[in-house]
Amino acid sequence: MAITIAQSKNPRSKVPEASLGWGKHFTDHMFIADYDRDHGWHNARILPYGPLSLEPAAAVLHYGQAMFEGLKAFARPDGRVQLFRPERHCQRMHDGAPRLCMEPPPIALMMEGIQTLVALDSAWVPRGPGTALYLRPTLFATERFLGVRPANAYIFVVIASPVGTYFGTQGVRPVKIWVETKEIRAARGGLGAIKAGANYAASLHAAHAAKQAGYDQVLWLDARDHETIEEVGTMNLFVRIEDTLVTPPLSDSILSGVTRDSILTLARDLGFKVQERPLSVKELRAANKAGTLREVFGTGTAAIITPVVELAIDADRLTVGDGKPGAMAHQLFEELTGIQRGTKTDKFGWMFPVEPLSARPALVSAISGTR
After folding, report:
1. CA distances (Å), 287 to each of 258, 328, 330, in order?
2. Cβ within 8 Å of residue 38, ≥6 positions away
3. Residue 24 phi/psi, 5° resolution?
4. In sequence order, what E strands does 173-253 have?
5. What is the pLDDT of residues 148-194, one digit of tens each?
6. How many CB atoms lie within 10 A of CB 15?
7. CA distances (Å), 276 to each of 186, 225, 238, 246, 264, in order?
8. Per DSSP, what are the bridge partners of residue 319?
9. Close Cβ partners of 338 (under 8 Å, ≥ 6 residues apart)
10. pLDDT tens-digit map of 341-362
């Protein structure tokens, strides 16, 4: 599908990298494609970043048909720009959309749209340590109707945001986690395994309460008994007991994190003992009491690896290890970020180079409205 490009005539001023923060600034352009039942996916285009027009009766506003992805582009030392595992993110959206009865964009269309947007806005890719260009593909229902059924029209949008570190500090910034024993994020048979907006709405109440109590994130337990560990609000969870790295197995209530998969691959490649198995709060308490709970950390696109130094379980406060980030989390963080930034060999084929628009004449010829 051809992509038409209307280049912005009013480019924005770049923000100093030290002031980027997370998700506060956006590049000059966005990618959009439309779907309806009669025409399929069509009208792929890049426009100047700006508001979208949406009917008050749009299905997404009433029935919540919406999901998103999140991935990053990085600048190599030689200046080239690369995406980290974009095909895996596109595949996850493609596979998850049918659970919300949405028509997923073809993977090739998602990949082409993301690449073209990054190529056009490549000057926005920050170069400093801990920075990246964060891409947010979003899919939602736009059909104008009131009635409980799947919509027949959708829009796919990709926006880009130059970001610093998720928690505002360089490296592996440790956090304190609240273990939620009453509310639930997702239940078996629900939407927990896909990046539906509804999952994040369900997590906000407990997350807000946790932050009011001085904690950074919420660790969610199984919806039935509140005994088995599932995931943190924005991350998958890993626990090191003695010298074994343990993470809960994937299910229909746990998101299949791309960073999770990358850490599992790296850990095994480095010779660590790894287990994907159920992990209970009871086992966490026992390991902490026995002194064998060495490390706990979360993994996700935003923060990459986040060490956990304290767990609050009801009235108990469990200090993890010696209360400082652990050696395994640090080593895995250095390995993964080295691959992402091009300072370590990418032997897994995770990095996807973004060609400049000048190397893609078919796209260059479609550009209109250039300065």
Report:
1. 28, 17, 21
2. none
3. -105, -20
4. 175-180, 217-221, 229-232, 235-241, 244-247
5. 999 999 999 999 999 998 765 555 679 999 999 999 999 999 999 99
6. 15
7. 20, 20, 10, 6, 9
8. 310
9. 344
10. 999 999 999 999 999 888 776 5
